[in-house]
Design goal:
Structural class: alpha/beta
Number of domains: 2
Order of helices and strands: HHEHEHEHEHEHEHEHEEHHEH
CATH superfamily of the largest domain: Bordetella uptake gene, domain 1
CATH architecture of the largest domain: 3-Layer(aba) Sandwich
Largest sheet: 10 strands, mixed
């Protein structure tokens, strides 16, 4: 989101009469469910923003990691929680754009069972390999996997994660075949890529930037429309000849369906305030993250647009999780 759009959104939030109304909320700590393990980009972002929101809300926000089932375990907790503003969650591509296409049956739907509070961040995915892997460049990598169909494994934080779907899209666009090794979270997946147990993966820039800069993994291409400022030497997938393969993770804050408008507005105001805090901006930029401050409606529009974009892609790749 452009800076002027962000400032306008914040100004509108601050000026709204319900944002100033004293509803008595919150009067106790808030539970923030993260549907991934501790240590990954989602967890780091949630803890950073939750700490910054504490000042605006006057209450502690406790992060509760509930990983598993392509975020469905954590999502179910929030979908069935009381809509009183004391249970919220990090939601990403999996819940908001993928799962309705990956599962034949889901106990909840992102449009029916959740309240959109606001956006958190967007960050691109990067194709990385172990430094000892034979491929030094993207062209080397593509040639190698084409010459060894099915023999190259790739890691991901789990079935249905943005990282998993990014590689499936890559395979579809390049007509290659790699074997998926799902993990329970980004941290163990990248650990095995660094250790050489699995040679490659798509890694979100938030979790990947430190290990890329330290040389523990080698970045071959980035799934963004343009090169990342933090990695100016890494070409985009489009630059290396893979068209229509922009892949990124986006995240936002959700609550259960039926969250009262005054509480939604209070949380949105605190969220936007946190995303504008200099220490949060600095940390997000250090991890290659782009803030997604704005209104609940703007975040909902982004999520639905991504669901429409990925539906045909998932159908074409043939990926199903049930």
């Amino acid at each position: 989101m452009e800076r002027r759009t962000f400032l306008a959104a914040c100004a509108a939030t601050a000026a709204a009469p319900w944002a100033r109304a004293d509803t008595g909320y919150p009067s106790q700590p808030i539970r923030w469910v993260v549907p991934y393990p501790a240590g990954g980009g989602t967890d780091v972002l949630a803890r950073t923003v939750a700490e910054a929101m504490r000042g605006g809300l006057g209450q502690q926000i406790v992060v509760d990691n509930r990983p598993g089932a392509s975020t469905n375990i954590g999502s179910q907790i929030v979908a069935t929680a009381k809509p009183d503003g004391y249970t919220v969650m990090s939601a990403d591509n999996a819940l908001l754009a993928y799962n309705e296409h990956l599962y034949r049956r889901l106990p909840f739907h992102p449009d029916k069972d959740f309240t959109y509070i606001g956006g958190l961040s967007r960050f691109p995915l990067v194709l990385v390999v172990n430094p000892a892997f034979a491929a030094q460049t993207f062209q080397d990598f593509l040639a190698y996997v084409k010459a060894h169909p099915g023999q190259v494994n790739y890691a991901s934080p789990g079935n249905g994660s943005p990282h998993h779907l990014a590689m499936e899209l890559f395979k579809h666009r390049t007509q290659t075949f790699l074997t998926h090794i799902p993990y329970r979270g980004a941290a163990p997946a990248v650990q095995d890529v660094m250790g050489g147990q699995v040679p490659c993966m798509f890694l979100d820039l938030a979790a990947g930037l430190p290990v890329i800069q330290s040389g523990k993994v080698r970045a071959l291409a980035i799934g963004a429309a343009r090169r990342a400022a933090a990695l100016p030497h890494v070409p985009t997938l489009a630059e290396v000849g893979v068209a229509d393969a922009e892949v990124y993770a986006f995240q936002g804050l959700l609550g259960p369906a039926g969250l009262p408008p005054a509480i939604t507005a209070r949380l949105n105001a605190a969220l936007n305030q946190a995303l504008a805090a200099p220490e949060v901006v600095e940390r997000m930029r250090a991890f290659g993250m782009e803030p997604l401050a704005g209104t609940p409606e703007q975040f909902h529009a982004l999520a639905r647009a991504e669901a429409r974009r990925w539906g045909p892609v998932i159908a074409a790749t043939g990926v199903k999780l049930d």
